[in-house]
Amino acid sequence: xxxxxxxxxxxxxxxxxxxxxxxxxxxxxxxxxxxxxxxxxxxxxxxxxxxxxxxxxxxxxxxxxxxxxxxxxxxxxxxxxxxxxxxxxxxxxxxxxxxxxxxxxxxxxxxxxxxxxxxxxxxxxxxxxxxxxxxxxxxxxxxxxxxxxxxxxxxxxxxxxxxxxxxxxxxxxxxxxxxxxxxxxxxxxxxxxxxxxxxxxxx
Length: 203
Fold this sequence. Notes:
single chain; 203 residues; alpha+beta; CATH 2.40.50.140; 3 helices; 17% helix
């Protein structure tokens, strides 16, 4: 059974796609995002089936009680109910989370981005990659791929998932303020030479 799960038509939240952040005590910086969906989503059902199988493969006959402990501690799992994602200022679920479930994925490597045709956008093509990443804001709809894995170390036992790839699907109501596009306000500068080709360092 593959441990990679496709999460279709989910909402992106807290996306750190181009700038990795450090949250864990280890200080390791990671790219990350939350993926929000209804609890009845077939994608979430598939995700939970995979998580159960990963636990079974890792812990065998002990999987059931270990899963019970994991479900009881948010720090030990990469999924949760929306009401577990509370705004520290209002103590209410963040916008978009209430009544839903979410999966948190992270990666020490850059997230793979895919265009509308399903083709991978090369990470070394910085301009194309950054252009695709700019379309990914909190509240938009995406298709995503995550890889589920179990861990067992001095911190305990848990299940996490690696955010492997993201494809922009369509716009949605933003969870936060989107920076306005003011490009139409700027006019050509008289006498400025046209930029016909990119310098080598920008390729």
